[in-house]
Task: inverse folding
């Protein structure tokens, strides 16, 4: 890939050829569109703003002819560097493609453009008595296109599953600019879900939706330490309970939340579970009674939401986790690893011990129902020695994940930051097969190059960011 700024002439040529989409090359655009939520800075030669499928196809067609690397971008809220441009290529932002294209309540399907924000979709459906289950913590700003590209999950993933379960079809554009309309998820479109923009450019997604639950019962449970809270969660699952939300928050994180958002008198000495049952009223009541009885036998303190206002208050507490951590450091290193459910208590203890070994300010929370834990280190990238300890911690963390039979990423993706570690979980034969798929779908290697399974040199890039 060429160096900084060397595609400028080609990008200006693309701007002249594609009249329907604005293409900007000034620093006002190339600087902010050159990084994502990781803070890693890339090299952006220009930013294009298509307003529809025709614009998107034309941009891909012209970029392919000129060999210009293309980096699809939603809100730039990713935590793996997946949308960070490299080598002075062209960023294509989906922010002006934000329409709801159709809604069929009979078929329980909605089709939206890639730039629709998850929260906007949730609000649209709620007004019509439906909801879209995948709800990542970034739902207020992350886009559906980005959610599909990362196969996003969220607090409701245990009961309802992640994005892939709800993709009915995708309309997308190939690396050569060909449009593939309403491609079924049992064909090539299946490869695009979770592929982080490396195989095709998503224009729209037709998604399955569900009727809104009729009833909710929401709780905050004090678990008495990692083994208590996570052990209780495992007991709930073993007992056959199926909460819509089953979230873990460690004691240290809860103290931050307490400083950021008043806890109304409940202590924050221990680890916590945020639990919500939803669905048909009779089923919800039965599960809530079983949960309360389990908590009584375990002598676990429980705070129930007694009305809609208290339910919203508990949700505010959960959503305050990330903002509260932002007060603890200049730089947040956020790793979303996954562990087998039966080993979560052991994993939580091991992560905390590892953080103490490296003398790092570490916070642990996540989705206890599907084993997806968010390991957050609050640091300052300007402190070189401390950042070196962070990198050693991350390497040891990934080794721990592999030793316990887990996965390097639950929902944030591989991108730049985790690409160097794929050899820890995949054989060379598996990686070679993935590269062959990449070459077959993107012969010119222009779609998000340097990422995921073909991201050579990413470790150095991540360290220098």
Result:
């Amino acid at each position: 890939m060429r160096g900084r700024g060397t595609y400028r002439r080609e990008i200006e040529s693309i701007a002249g050829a594609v009249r329907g989409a604005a293409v900007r090359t000034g620093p006002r655009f190339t600087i902010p569109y050159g990084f994502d939520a990781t803070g890693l800075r890339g090299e952006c030669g220009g930013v294009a703003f298509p307003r529809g499928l025709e614009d998107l196809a034309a941009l891909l067609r012209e970029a392919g002819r000129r060999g210009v690397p293309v980096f699809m971008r939603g809100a730039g809220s990713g935590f793996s560097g997946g949308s960070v441009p490299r080598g002075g290529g062209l960023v294509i932002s989906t922010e002006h493609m934000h329409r709801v294209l159709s809604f069929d309540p009979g078929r329980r399907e909605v089709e939206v453009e890639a730039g629709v924000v998850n929260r906007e979709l949730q609000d649209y459906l709620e007004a019509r008595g439906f909801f879209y289950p995948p709800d990542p913590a970034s739902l207020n700003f992350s886009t559906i296109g980005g959610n599909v590209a990362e196969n996003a999950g969220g607090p409701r993933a245990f009961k309802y599953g992640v994005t892939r379960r709800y993709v009915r079809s995708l309309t997308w554009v190939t690396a050569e600019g060909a449009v593939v309309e309403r491609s079924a998820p049992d064909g090539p479109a299946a490869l695009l879900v979770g592929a982080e923009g490396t195989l095709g450019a998503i224009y729209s997604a037709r998604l399955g939706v569900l009727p809104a639950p009729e009833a909710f019962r929401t709780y905050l449970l004090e678990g008495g330490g990692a083994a208590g809270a996570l052990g209780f969660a495992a007991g709930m699952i073993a007992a056959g309970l199926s909460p819509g939300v089953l979230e873990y928050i460690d004691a240290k994180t809860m103290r931050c939340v307490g400083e950021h958002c008043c806890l109304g008198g409940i202590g924050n000495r221990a680890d916590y579970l945020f639990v919500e049952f939803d669905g048909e009223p009779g089923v919800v009541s039965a599960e809530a009674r079983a949960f309360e009885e389990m908590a009584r036998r375990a002598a676990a303190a429980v705070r129930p939401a007694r009305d809609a206002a208290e339910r919203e208050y508990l949700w505010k507490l959960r959503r305050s986790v990330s903002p509260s951590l932002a007060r603890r450091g200049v730089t947040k290193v956020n790793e979303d690893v996954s562990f087998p459910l039966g080993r979560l208590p052991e994993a939580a203890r091991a992560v905390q011990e590892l953080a103490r070994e490296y003398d790092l300010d570490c916070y642990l929370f996540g989705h206890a129902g599907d084993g997806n834990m968010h390991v957050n280190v609050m640091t300052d990238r300007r402190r070189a020695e401390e950042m070196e300890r962070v990198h050693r911690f991350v390497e040891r963390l990934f080794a721990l994940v592999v030793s316990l039979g887990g996965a390097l990423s639950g929902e944030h993706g591989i991108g730049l930051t985790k690409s160097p570690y794929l050899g820890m979980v995949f054989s060379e034969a598996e990686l070679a097969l993935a590269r062959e798929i990449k070459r077959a779908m993107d012969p010119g290697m222009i779609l998000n190059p340097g990422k995921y399974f073909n991201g050579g040199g990413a470790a150095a890039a991540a360290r220098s960011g």
Q: What stands out?
A: Residues 384-403 form the longest helix (20 residues).
